[in-house]
Design goal:
The protein is built from 7 helices and 6 strands. The chain has helices at about 15-30, 40-45, 55-65, 110-120, 165-170, 185-195, 210-215, and strands at about 75-80, 95-105, 130-135, 140-150, 155-165, 175-185. The chain has a 6-stranded antiparallel β-sheet, sandwiched between helices. Strand 3 (about 130-135) and strand 4 (about 140-150) form a beta hairpin.
């Protein structure tokens, strides 16, 4: 569903007719969904809170895209997110999330898998596994795993899926348009690539400044 309640910006920038469509889908369904069957409250969605993921950014960009004659698009973002999690060697309460999505006509799960293999291979990770998962705004959904030589096991590095019709159709996107999306932390793949077994050695006061100085700055080229 539209994750408007998960971003520091509120729903006040949205037209009332779109907000009403989102409310109706949450409460009673539509666009092939049965809905959640609860009372969706505008005042709850308008609250400011630290976002747990960047899907709120993706939703906003897709809505803007839907207001124009359709053209395929790719979006990519990196931003800070926050979680109510216990800190251990693979988890932090705050980290950086990378999110990518492709919006085009007739995309399939096979396209998503192909994109993920291409994306992670460019990061030096060719050993990938996928596991079916549940996300409230994608179906089908898959968790992404890569092999960590230091841990000697497969480690979850991201999540992915195809945005549900009941998320896209209320925006005004055409019926045959599909969106494949994936999200990952910046820190987990970095740990795998550099053989780091404790995330606190990568992010925070224990970071090895020598590691930072001897590695080149990453430059990302966008099409």
């Amino acid at each position: 569903m539209v994750q408007s309640c998960d971003a520091p910006s509120t729903t006040r920038w949205l037209p009332e007719d779109y907000v009403e469509r989102v409310k109706r889908v949450h409460e009673s369904g539509g666009y092939e969904s049965r809905g959640y069957g609860y009372d969706w409250k505008r005042e709850e969605a308008d609250k400011n809170l630290l976002r747990t993921h960047t899907t709120a950014v993706s939703s906003r960009m897709l809505y803007v895209l839907a207001q124009k004659p359709f053209a395929p698009k790719k979006y990519f973002s990196i931003d800070r997110v926050f979680r109510n999690e216990a800190v251990d060697r693979t988890h932090l309460a705050e980290f950086h999330q990378i999110e990518g999505l492709i919006c085009d006509r007739g995309l399939t799960l096979g396209d998503l898998i192909g994109v993920l293999h291409d994306f992670f291979s460019r990061l030096g990770m060719t050993k990938l596994r996928f596991k079916p998962a549940y996300n409230p705004y994608t179906e089908p959904s898959m968790e992404i795993f890569s092999y960590h030589e230091g841990f000697g096991k497969w480690v979850e590095i991201g999540n992915s899926g195809m945005f549900r019709p009941e998320m896209l159709r209320p925006m005004g996107l055409p019926d045959d348009v599909r969106v494949v999306a994936w999200g990952l932390s910046l820190e987990r793949p970095t740990m795998i690539l550099y053989g780091i077994d404790n995330i606190r050695d990568l992010f925070g006061h224990k970071v090895d400044l020598g590691l930072m100085k001897k590695n080149p700055i990453c430059r990302i080229g966008l099409e």
